[in-house]
Amino acid sequence: MNEDILTDISGQKIVVINEIRFRGRQNIDWKDVEKYVKAYVGKHFNVFETADKIYIGSEFPSELKGSEDTIKLRGTNAKAKANATQKIPQLIECATNKRWSENKKDKHKIDAKYGWYRYTTRFALPIYNGNLIDRYNIYRIEIIVRHSEDDKLYLYDMINVKKEKETKYPT
């Protein structure tokens, strides 16, 4: 098993992120995040639970940067979403709770011809005490995947990031 993936006491996977690459809570530079995420374009990763193959298309970086969810994010959740991008392969691998919904927007009638899937995944971000990691906060995030006309699944966005209550794991 990947050392970046831990299992909690309830058997759920948690992707561990050990570095805060995108700092600041009020002013995340989403253009930097977009540039970083472009390295994933053209790759694909498999969801362990369902064996779904999820591709990273060229539209993902700009959608992540400019989505309604990203625009309204502030504070710790914005920082968490930005830093979650460091482990996109592992977040996809550990995704669970697959749900389907019909495409309802004309603008996606081709690129999401067969609808949308949502998965839930979890990750841990470090809390520093000086230069040392003191503990981790655990977050949940939903991965949005479009089922395209070419019958492939493409990562579209990561939304609804939320810190879990009372899940601070010591190092």
Keywords:
alpha+beta, globular, eight-stranded mixed sheet, 21% helix
Write a structural description.
It is a single chain. The protein is an alpha+beta fold and 171 residues long. It contains five helices and eight strands; from the N terminus they run E-E-H-E-E-H-H-H-H-E-E-E-E. The chain has helices at 30-37, 60-66, 68-72, 75-84, 88-93; strands at residues 5-7, 13-16, 44-46, 53-56, 96-101, 116-129, 132-147, 153-170. Helix 1 runs antiparallel to helix 2 (60-66). The two termini are 19 Å apart. The mean pLDDT is 90.
Radius of gyration: 16 Å
H/E order of the elements?
Answer: EEHEEHHHHEEEE
What's the number of helices?
5
> Can you give the mean pLDDT?
90
Share of residues in strands: 35-45%
Basic shape: globular
Structural class by helix and strand composition: alpha+beta
Alpha carbon gap, first and last residue: 19 Å
- Number of discrete domains: 1
Helical residue percent? Answer: 10-25%
Major sheet size, sense and barrel closure: 8 strands, mixed
Number of E-state strands: 8
User: Poorly predicted ranges (pLDDT <50, ≥5 residues)?
Assistant: none
